[in-house]
Amino acid sequence: MLAKKFYLVFVPLILCQCAFAQQEVLVLKGGTIIDVTDFGNSERDIPNATVVIEGGRIRAAGNASSVKVPKGAKVINVTGKYIVPGLIDCFGIINDQGYANAYLYMGVTTAVMTEDNRRGKIDWAVKPSPRKIMLDAYWGAKSRRVSVGGVENAGFEVVRSWSTEEIDHDIDSLGRAGVKVLLVHYAVVPAQLPAIVAACKRNKIATIGELGLSSYGEAVQAGILSFVHTSRYSADMLPDSLRKVYSTSPFGPPARAYYEYITGQKDLAGNPKLQELSKLYRDHRVGLIPTAAMVEYPEMDFSTNPWLEPIASIIDERMIEFEPLDKSTGKPKNPSPVRQGAVPALFEIDKVFTKNGARYLTGSGTDAFGTLPGISLHNELAMLSHYGLTNRQVLAAATHNFSLLWDWTSIGKVEQGRDANILVLDQNPVMSLQHLKAISILIVEGNIIDRNKLMQKP
């Protein structure tokens, strides 16, 4: 039974788990600040830069000729290195200290987390940790799970949709509780979308659509800011008869029918509905979150085994309950043949969206389908690159795009006034995304985190 209107989660008011009571002034001197603005289309890097950090925030950032080094500051020479914002994973979870360490080690300084039956419970007490931000799912109705085609709980049916007054009450309560991202879910109907969008704006809550009874076109027009999972945000391309059953049975036989449909298209890229949808996403400045690290990445010929990353050694594999990968191969243990066969088509869909100018945000889906904290975000970046984004556009998707699409103006860029979540890299990430792993200095909320200590098992 899905009888609850929402899950009320109280988020700690102090989001930084690693700040000291008093911080010294820290200066990074001599590196190059990489430009991640304009969705990665701007190339105005700042060479010979100076970044002044105080009280967990960036006090000044710019060319050395324009930034004064405060007297008594601790100065770190980063000449020849590259300075970028910390990475953002907008769809994951931190279950324990090992997860937090892995995120940090891989340069993820902000993690948006969701609790569900695939990912388990969030551990709010871990430290050090990325900034932890709560995502909550909103169905907009009293609904119940039903069996479809002999598959238990594969679908849902609505008992009663909530009124505008109830929506306002629910989302205002979530805002007071500290929720910053709302997953607008399957049971929400088109008539509810304006009230949900207005309430989220009022509470400064970003919106992600994973829709059923509302079309993605209707959600775009209503003002939903972003959409998650390729297999969901491409649903409007389906024939009307299939779209109707898929909307209420996203986990059962209709999901299989979706995969069979996209796999059976002789000219998927030329599908008129897909082309129309891609132009809609382009023209309305929404963000797409493929979570391709979950299903697509393991099947790619360029994929690597995530368990071979050094930081994976501290992750407790028992925490990964939903379709974990084989540790020896990095491949699914018992893959669905139909879903596996649809991977090339899913890949092609996002290539179409990319070619037509869609914008992206980064979410790994951790830890469903064997995805690992931090590590799988880098796999998501690799997928975005193979869709056709430039390396700079991929880096923007993991940083400043959140400022442009979700109005998160305190993170995502190395500039005065923003939070000091910073990576200093040995090599230029614009030349290769692999260079994002070559982290020389990791700074979270103004504090330098010792990456070697993160490798120690909690």
Write up what this structure looks like.
One of its GO terms (molecular function) is hydrolase activity, acting on carbon-nitrogen (but not peptide) bonds. This is Imidazolonepropionase. It is a single chain. The protein has 15 helices and 18 strands. A hairpin with a 2-residue loop joins strand 9 and strand 10. The N terminus is likely disordered. The strands form three sheets. Strands 1, 2, 3, 4, 5, 16, 17 and 18 form an eight-stranded mixed β-sheet that branches. The protein has an eight-stranded parallel β-sheet with strand order 6-7-8-11-12-13-14-15. The protein has a single domain, classed as Alpha-Beta Barrel (TIM Barrel), CATH 3.20.20.140. With 458 residues, the chain is of the alpha/beta class.
Supply database-style keywords:
458 residues, alpha/beta, TIM Barrel, 8-stranded mixed sheet, 8-stranded parallel sheet, 18 strands, disordered N terminus
CATH topology: TIM Barrel
Bin the helical content.
Answer: 25-40%
Distance between the termini: 37 Å
Relative strand content: 15-25%
Radius of gyration: 22 Å
The low-confidence parts are: 1-22
The largest β sheet comes out as:
8 strands, mixed
CATH-wise, what's the superfamily?
Metal-dependent hydrolases
| Category from helices, strands and their pairing | alpha/beta
CATH architecture: Alpha-Beta Barrel
Number of helices: 15
How many strand elements?
18
Q: Averaging pLDDT over every residue, what do you get?
A: 93
The overall number of domains is 1
The CATH class assignment is Alpha Beta
- What oligomeric arrangement do these chains adopt? single chain
From the spread of the alpha carbons, the general shape counts as: globular
